[in-house]
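Bench notes, afternoon.
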Amino acid sequence: MIEIKPFLPWPGADERLIVGEMIRDRLSKHWEECSNFVRRCVYAKAKNIPDNLQEDIVQEVMYKVTKYLPHFRFQCALKTWLYQIIESCTIDMYRRLQHEGPYQIPLVDPLNESDREDEESKTSEAKSAEDAFEINEAIRDGMAALLEYANIHSNPARDSLIIRMVILEGQTYAETAIAAGCNAPVVGYVVREAQRYAREKMGHKL
């Protein structure tokens, strides 16, 4: 049975009004409050999962909330519905960790782009021309796999734009969300799922 935490006050008593506003307005302040609520719940529930993967859970929960909130019929409290999604996504992450093992190498980390460029500049002199060619080829293959992910899903134009803006151009989730006509949690979900797809496609070689 899912426990309701008394120290998490959102959404309050007027759930129907809040849900209605969130459905009508993707820029409503309640989306941010919902995201904060989900983040606190995930951090409390998934203490044994690394911090960066806890954030993956948050993004996946928010993606599902965004997708399914218009179909919420108030057959239970909104908090209970959210806890069910959080619990499901947390269990999925535990299963993923058991399947993949303890070590995971990210395909792309746009937040540390400058650090990565510094690292590459320091080591580039020691690399042979053959090594450099292989690295460039791997990068091209990685980007091809990322864009392939976009093309096989239901909204390829939007997902391709998201991948290019975040991964290639280093734009923030918020900036990309405005350009793509969605919200930041959806952007985060697309980026992470595209990276996961590319890692699996390339056999975790990047």
